[in-house]
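Key result, reporting period 2: structure in, sequence out.
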C-alpha cells in the first residue's frame, strides 16, 4: 500500500532498533519518507534498520534514552537539524522491562516502567510540539491491549502505564487540535517481537494465538500498517482515536 501524501514527510520513529519500530521505520522509508531511526541500548539494531531505510529512502540514525529530558530534547533537535522539521512523530519505544507483581514490585521498577512508557511519550511530544505546529503534523502513540485488560503475570504496572498512554493520547488530541495536529494511538495485542521473546514463554505465546479469533499472533508489520494509516491523509479527520491490532483478542462494543 502506497500513500502518495506520505512521500517526502519527515518521520521520527522512536525505538526503531527492534520489532514494531524497525518494521515501521522501513515501511515509512518505502513511502519515500525521511526517516529518523532511533535506538537506545541496541546500536546494531539501529544500524540494521538504518541500512534498510537507506536502501530505499533517506534518513538519520539517532541515540537517546527517552526517560531523560535532556536526551529527548537533543534527539528532537538533531532530527530537525538533519531534515528541517517534523511531520510525523511515532512514540513507539517502550518495554515491560521485567515481570513484577504489585505485591512486591520495587519503587524503582514502578518509576522505570512509567518513565520508559509514559514520560517518554510526554517528553517527545512536548519537545516536538513547536515543529509539529509548523507542519500541522501528527503523533501516533503505541499503547497496548494490556492498557485495556490489565495485562497478566506481573505485567500490571506496565499495563497501567499503557492505560496512561491511551488517556494521554486523547488529552493531547484535544490540546493540539487547534494547531491542526492530530494525535492517535495503536494498541497492539500479542506481536511476535523481541518483547515476547524476552518476557513470555513459547507455550504462552502459542496459547494466546489459539485464543485469538484470527488464529495467530501479530507481526510487527501488522502494527506498522495501522501506524502508517494514522499518519496519512487517509485518516485526516481522525484524532483522539485508537486502532486495536490484535486479531480480535479484545473487541469493544
Ligand atoms: N510486542 C508486543 O506484543 C507488544 C504489545 C503491545 C504493545 N507493545 C508496545 O510496542 C512498542 C514496541 O515494542 P516491540 O514489541 O517492538 O518491542 P522491542 O522489540 O523490545 O522494541 C522496543 C524498542 O523500545 C526501545 N526502548 C526501550 N526502552 C527505551 C528507553 N528507555 N529509551 C529509548 N528507547 C527505548 C528499544 O530500544 P533499544 O533496544 O535500542 O534500547 C527498542 O527499540 C512498545 O511500546 C511496546 O510496549 C508491544
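The corresponding designed sequence is given below.
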Amino acid at each position: 500500500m502506497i500513500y502518495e501524501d506520505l512521500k517526502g514527510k519527515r518521520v521520527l520513529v522512536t525505538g526503531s532498533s527492534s520489532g514494531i519500530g524497525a518494521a515501521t521505520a522501513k515501511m515509512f522509508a518505502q513511502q519515500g519518507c525521511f526517516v529518523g531511526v532511533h535506538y537506545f541500548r541496541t546500536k546494531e539494531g539501529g544500524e540494521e534498520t538504518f541500512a534498510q531505510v537507506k536502501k530505499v529512502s533517506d534518513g538519520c540514525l539517532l541515540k537517546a534514552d527517552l526517560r531523560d529530558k535532556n536526551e529527548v530534547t537533543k534527539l528532537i533537535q538533531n532530527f530537525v537539524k538533519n531534515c528541517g522539521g517534523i511531520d510525523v512523530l511515532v512514540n513507539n519505544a517502550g518495554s515491560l522491562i521485567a515481570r513484577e507483581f504489585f505485591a512486591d514490585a520495587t519503587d524503582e521498577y514502578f518509576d522505570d516502567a512509567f518513565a520508559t512508557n509514559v514520560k517518554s511519550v510526554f517528553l517527545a511530544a512536548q519537545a516536538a510540539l513547536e515543529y509539529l505546529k509548523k507542519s500541522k503534523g501528527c503523533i501516533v502513540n503505541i499503547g497496548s491491549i494490556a492498557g485495556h485488560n490489565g495485562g497478566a503475570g506481573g505485567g500490571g504496572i506496565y499495563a497501567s502505564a499503557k492505560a496512561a498512554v491511551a488517556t494521554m493520547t486523547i488529552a493531547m488530541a484535544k490540546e493540539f487540535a487547534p494547531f491542526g495536529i492530530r494525535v492517535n494511538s495503536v494498541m497492539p495485542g500479542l506481536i511476535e517481537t523481541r518483547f515476547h521473546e524476552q518476557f513470555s514463554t513459547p507455550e504462552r505465546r502459542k496459547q494466546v494465538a489459539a485464543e485469538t479469533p484470527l488464529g495467530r499472533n501479530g507481526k510487527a508489520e501488522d502494527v506498522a500498517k495501522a501506524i502508517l494509516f494514522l499518519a496519512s491523509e487517509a485518516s485526516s479527520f481522525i484524532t483522539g482515536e485508537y486502532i486495536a491490532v490484535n486479531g480480535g483478542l479484545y473487541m469493544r462494543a
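The longest strand covers residues 182-188. The chain is about 50% helix and 15% strand. This case is discussed further under Risks and Mitigation.
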